[in-house]
Structure formats: C-alpha cells, structure tokens
Write a structure and sequence with these properties.
Distance between the termini: 91 Å
CATH topology of the largest domain: Rossmann fold
Strand content: 5-15%
Radius of gyration: 29 Å
Number of helices: 19
Bound molecules: adenosine-5'-triphosphate, magnesium ion
Strand order of the largest sheet: 2-1-3-4-5
Largest sheet: 5 strands, parallel
C-alpha cells in the first residue's frame, strides 16, 4: 500500500511462473486458514479463493492479503462449499477446471444459496469459450491465466462495487450532498451513483469513460465530493484543449527562466491539488510524450517542475475522463497500456441519455427553470406534447444536447408554455458543426420570421401581434434579417 492508501500501487506482475512462490505441497489444507479469524471483528473484504494449483493459490493469497483483503484459500470446490457459511465471503474467485466439482458447478450451488455473491472464474486459454458461457449464466467475470495482479484486483473491486459490498463513506457525505448537482431518477443512474460513492471512498484512480455530453465532468466532481479529499482542492485540466508545449508546465509547473516566456515560477496542477483531486479530462487526447511523464508521476508520487532539478512530493487522487474507447487506443498504440491500467483501476460508465429516458423530463424541467431565470423569461415550462417529443428524441449529444435544445426553446419562446412546434424546430435544427448560441438564435429567428410572414401573407400588423412585438420592433427585426414583407403578399389579379 502506498502513502495514499492506494491498494494497487505496490503490486508487481502476477504470473503463474513466479519463482518467488513458496511451495505448498499439501493438497488438502487451505493455504491460509483465515476463516479462523473473527469476521465480525474485521472490516476487511473477504475473498474465497478456490484453485487446485497450490502455487497459484498461494501467490494470489499473498498478493490479495498484501492489499488488505481477508483471504480463505482452498484447493477444491467441495471444500469451498463448506467454507461459505463460516467465512461468509464477499467475492469468490475460483478456477474453472478442477478435479471433482468444477468451478461452474460451484457457481451454480453458490447461486442457489446466495444470489448476490459475485463469482470470478479463472480459466486457461483452452477453456475461454466455457468461461464466456459462464458469464452468460451469471458468473461475474473471468480471467485468463496468466493474469496480472492489477487485473485481478480490478475485477474484485468491480465485483465488490456491484454487490454493494464496498465500504460506505463515513461522516457527513452519507447524505446526498455530494451528488446534489446530478439530476436523475433512473435505475441505471442510481446504480452508477452507488458505484461512484463506493469508488470515491477507496482513493483509487477512476476512469470515466462515456459518450460526449453524458456528464463526465459532473461525475468527476461528485467523486471528489464523496471522497475523504472533499475539503481539499479539485483541479481540472482538459488535456485536449491544452497545446502540447504547455501541457507539461501546466501539469507539473515550471521555474522562472526555464523556457522563453517563463518569466515567473509557475505552480503546476499536481502541486496545486496536493491532498486533493486532479481531474484529467479528455485523457484519450493526451500526447504520447506527456503520457510517459504522467505515468512517472503516478508511479513515484512526485513531480519535477520544468527546468527544476528538484522533485516535489505530491499526494493526489486521479480521475480521468474520455469519450474515446481507451482500450482501443491502447490496441492502436496511441495510448500507453501501462498508463491505461494505472488510470483504469475503476471504470465508471455514464449511460447515454437514450438509455435513461426517465431522466429526460426531469432534466428538461430542471434546465428550463434554470435557464428561464437566467434569461429573465419568468417561469417557462414545456407543454405536455412538447415534453413527449423530447422524451422520445434520439439524443446523440446526450445531456449537453438536451441542455442546448432547452436553451433554444427558452430563448425563443414567446409564450410561458413552450410549444411542441418550437421543440420540434429546435430538435430538427442540426448544424453540421456546433455553432455558438448567438448564431443558433439568429438562424432560428430567421426561420421563425419566414414562417410568420408566410402565415400572415406579409401582414405586418398581424405578424407583429402574433409575435408579441410592437410594429416598430417588428420592422427592426425584419430589417436585421433582410426580409421584405411585400414578397409574402399574395398577388391579387
Ligand atoms: N445528470 C445531470 N444533471 C444535471 N446536469 C447535468 C447532468 N448531466 C450532465 N449535466 C449538464 O450537462 C452538461 C454536460 O455535462 P458534462 O460537461 O459533465 O458532460 P461531459 O460528458 O463532460 O461532456 P463532453 O464529453 O462534451 O466533455 C453540463 O452543463 C452539465 O452540468
Ligand atoms: Mg467533459
């Protein structure tokens, strides 16, 4: 365990050929009979390990115990069954192929007794299809031997999170303050928020990987607020927005005179966030050279400002976010694998808005209230038919897109009730590239005036009345948009 209490940092690669393994020749005794320990007295998470390979069993036990887990390791599924009620594990890690009862039979028996106990299967290359089939039957996940310790630990953490067995946060974050900015009522979000809170208290690195506009930045802030670091700084940096030449100095700082233009010493983000959280947004866009430097900081917990010969110890929790598939970037060679594993101890995935349609009306009403106040429009609301349309829309841009659409509706609505027609127009409006709100407003206004003039056949008095503007305001509007009402008048023969 490192100084921050991060559980994975000190782990070396776990390999079945590890020569440091002590032989345990006994085929019938458990490697560590920790079931003798008083479970009620310890807060440790309990892992039941089952494998007929005594070496592997011993090695995994040592690694997991070093990371704070209470381990009961047994060499057969039959023995494992007898330990379930005594040891009361939170997770079972079992080999798939074993003489006698195999891992799958063990899983089925566990399922019959306790549906919530996650089972992780260990498998050799030859039995991958069986392991995949096992996950379809409800096995939590599988690992192919040989695997590294970080991967196993990540699987265990995820299993604990899913089963709700991670430690609850202490003190005053037990209320909902930490998540107060996240509006949602859907089950998928509730599950995610539970995982978020459980992850927050562990102090491990968190990777938020989700589509654009789903609320990654908001969630990163919530992780910080739910963590023990909540009273310390939360510093964010968008790696995609920062020119490569400045990134290193932004992250790690620089000393005066270290490069042209470096007039003053600059404190980097890591130092400024000491004892708090650093949020690295758009991490998938970080240049490969900067990735190497970041990895070094994560491994050594110290930074060396640009131009300095001294290193400074830093204690920060890292949250990274990306809309890219980082594993794919690793496969393509554009993202470092070692950095990926270090950042990805726990992954949180925000569901797309289309997978949580229950949230749409809640969010739309919230944004509508907030934005009508901001734009001085009194209290606007959506007509039921308009809301119906929003709830069934595709939302490729997720919550951010919903926010933009609501803003368009609020700005352009001339009545307290936002009509379906207005919502429809806002939704149909699809610029090829994202344009600014002013430009969007202009385009929408232009369309609106065209429609109005068509409807009224160029009757200014009527058009002005319908748009709730006086005649001179209306003429000004037409002039600004270069519209001539005469062109809309029907020619009378
Ligand atoms: N559940 C939510 N409740 C309230 N507001 C939300 C929610 N989710 C997102 N938002 C708002 O939607 C906007 C987009 O959210 P955010 O910036 O966190 O998304 P993102 O995933 O980081 O997007 P991008 O990939 O574009 O950077 C923000 O204004 C945020 O406050
Ligand atoms: Mg973002």
């Amino acid at each position: 365990m490192d100084s921050r209490g991060t559980v994975f940092v000190s782990l070396a690669l776990l390999d079945t050929n590890d020569t440091a393994v002590k032989k345990n020749s006994s085929q019938n005794t458990s490697v560590n009979n920790s079931s003798k320990s008083n479970n009620a007295m310890t807060n440790k998470r309990r892992i039941l390990l089952v494998d007929d390979d005594a070496d592997l069993l011993h090695l995994i036990s040592v690694r997991l115990k070093a990371n704070g887990f209470d381990i009961n390791a047994v060499n057969s599924a039959e023995t494992a069954l007898t330990r379930l009620s005594v040891f009361r594990p939170h997770v079972v890690v079992t080999d798939l192929r074993m003489p006698g009862m195999d891992g799958m039979e063990l899983f089925e028996l566990i399922q019959q007794r306790n549906l919530r106990l996650p089972v992780i299967m260990l498998t050799a290359h030859g039995t991958i299809p069986e392991a995949v089939a096992a996950t379809q039957k409800g096995v939590f996940s599988y690992l192919v031997k040989p695997f590294d310790a970080q991967t196993l630990l990540a699987h265990i953490e995820k299993a604990l999170l899913q089963s709700g067995e991670m430690e609850q946060p202490e003190g005053d974050v037990s209320d909902r303050q930490w998540r107060s900015e996240i509006i949602s009522c859907s089950h998928v979000m509730e599950n995610l928020l539970q995982q978020t809170r459980a992850a927050a208290v562990t102090d491990v690195s968190v990777l938020i990987q989700s589509q654009t506009g789903t609320g990654k930045e908001l969630l990163a802030g919530a992780v910080h607020k739910a963590s023990a670091r909540r009273d310390k700084p939360f510093m964010a940096l968008n790696c995609a927005a920062m020119p490569e030449a400045l990134l290193e100095s932004e992250l790690f700082g620089h000393v005066a005179g270290s490069f042209t233009g470096a007039h003053k010493t600059h404190t980097g983000l890591f130092q400024a966030a000491n004892r708090g959280t650093v949020f690295l947004d758009e991490i998938g866009d970080m240049p490969i050279a900067a990735q190497a430097k970041l990895l070094r900081v994560l491994e050594q917990h110290e930074v060396r400002p640009v131009g300095s010969t001294e290193t400074i110890a830093v204690d920060v929790r890292i949250i990274a976010a990306t809309h890219h598939d980082l594993a794919e970037k690793v496969a393509q060679g554009t993202f470092r694998e070692d950095l990926f594993y270090r950042l990805n101890v726990i992954t949180l995935e925000l569901p797309p808005l289309s997978e949580r349609r229950e949230d749409i009306s809640l969010l739309a009403n919230h944004f509508c209230q907030m934005l009508s106040a901001r734009h001085g429009k009194g209290s606007l609301r959506f007509a039921p038919e308009a809301m119906e349309l929003l709830v069934s829309a595709p939302w490729p841009g997720n919550v951010r897109q919903l926010l933009n659409i609501v803003e368009q509706c609020v700005v352009l609505s001339s009545t307290p009730l936002i009509s379906r027609a207005l919502a429809e127009r806002a939704l149909r409006f699809k610029p090829d590239r994202l344009i600014g709100l002013n430009q969007a407003r202009e385009q929408f206004e232009h369309d609106y005036l065209l429609r109005l003039l068509n409807m009224t056949e160029g009757n200014i008095a009527l058009a002005a009345r319908l748009s709730e503007r006086n005649r001179s305001e209306f003429y000004n509007l037409l002039r600004r948009h270069g519209l001539d009402p005469a062109q809309f008048r029907k020619v009378t023969e």
